[in-house]
Amino acid sequence: MSYSKLKFNEIMSSYEDARNRNRALKDERIKQVYEKIPEIREIDNMVADISAAAAIKKIEGGTDTADSLKKIDDLSAKKRSLLQQNGFDPSFLNPVFDCPDCEDTGYINGKKCHCLKQKIIDAIYRQSDIYPKLKEENFDTFSFDYFSGETLSEMKKIHAIALNFVDSFAKTYENMLLYGNVGSGKTFITNCIAGRLIEEGYSVIYLTALRLFELINGHVFRKNDSPFDEDAYNSLFDCSLLIIDDLGTEVMNSATVTASELFQILNERGNARKSTIISSNLSLEQLKDNYTERSFSRILGGYELIRFNGDDIRLMKRRQA
User: Fold this and answer.
1) CA 239 to CA 120: how far, in whole Å?
2) What is the largest CA-CA distance in the chain?
3) Does the model's pTM come out above 0.70?
């Protein structure tokens, strides 16, 4: 079983909570508008009466609804105009949804919405703690203030590459290997990319190499120990973007089997044209020493290599604090 029934019920309950919260918000907005613009209440009553009459007519065999639709369109246009004239956005009374695509149901035409897929991924990997980081580390909060000289020029190029990766994600297939000094901005950049793509509705899995290799070892050596293992492992192949942070720092138990399994994942994702981003504090030479020549050549051949040469930004921030 992929994730417990209890956990799935909790996820679906969160959708019900969202619908109730958003209905309450819309009701509050309606109350606010009715108090300020009584004419809109009259318009809503007229639209309801016209819709009810049209429905009765259709039940009785009538087919001509064009006149009713025109009246409703005219009244709706008048309503939007009144809202705007009184300082409201024309869409102020539209239905409110956390996810407009599925209207907070979790499903679109019987299939899981992207938002439900991401919630399931979060449950499987218990990675909801990443979201506070995404609020702090994103393209809007990115700053070049900690860079200078050649490093500043390099970081501007890296920033542009990351933006292009996100902007072209739907149309192109790309992989990236970010490597270089500790604290030089690799994780910040991957958080920027992850946050933006999650906002755009893509399923993103973000794992440290340590967590990933624990998962792989669980799949290979004790597959049935955890009820989450099977789906957690399968989602590594299926997610829109897989991000592996700090490759090379993991403890390599049964290294040959584990590394082989990792590169099987990367290879199958490549065959399916699903993007992967890997970050590492090690140099290319050190990474090459950690893995077989054949395995490492797969990364070199299919990934854009991006080197980070800057100093430890976290140390600089602490010094300035």
Assistant:
1) 11
2) 79
3) no
